[in-house]
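Issue 218. Parser rejects a valid record. Input:
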Amino acid sequence: MQTINSLLKIVSDALGAVAMLFLAFLVFGTTLDVLVRALTGSPITGVFEFTELALVMVVFLGAGWAQRDDAHIRVTVLTEKLSPATRARVVALAWAVGALALLMLAIPATHEAIYSVSIREFRWGYVKIPIWWTKASLAAGLWFAFIQMAIQSLQLFLFGEPTQTKQASPDLH
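Output the parser choked on:
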């Protein structure tokens, strides 16, 4: 399992790094577009269209980081009242349901991506923007998230929750 977790970490780090490049574009591209619009009265051609695609890339390629680090939002009011063994099984079931939902999204997204790549799909805005690569990346991100959630579900079910050492909070008196 350690090898699988290491491989998942490498892939999520790579996808996360790509997501951060798109986030950098969102920050700097949008800022530059606003400045140019304020100075000249017209936007930078294509920034709006590419921003739409960059948002998709940030979400679907960056999801692996949130999953790996448990950085997502969850409500634990019921599960914290369960015994550790029962909690692990319930949380494992929840991850399995999430993985199944991602699988149900990944399959049609893959078919759409294959078609989109085959016709080199694009869309028109102010400029012609190719979108086939975004659809392929979205499908890859969904498959990775599915695999990651399914493995987490299996690990929780088989081995329970990993023991975590709690850090002492600083005394604020």
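Fixed in the parser; the record now loads. The mean pLDDT is 88.
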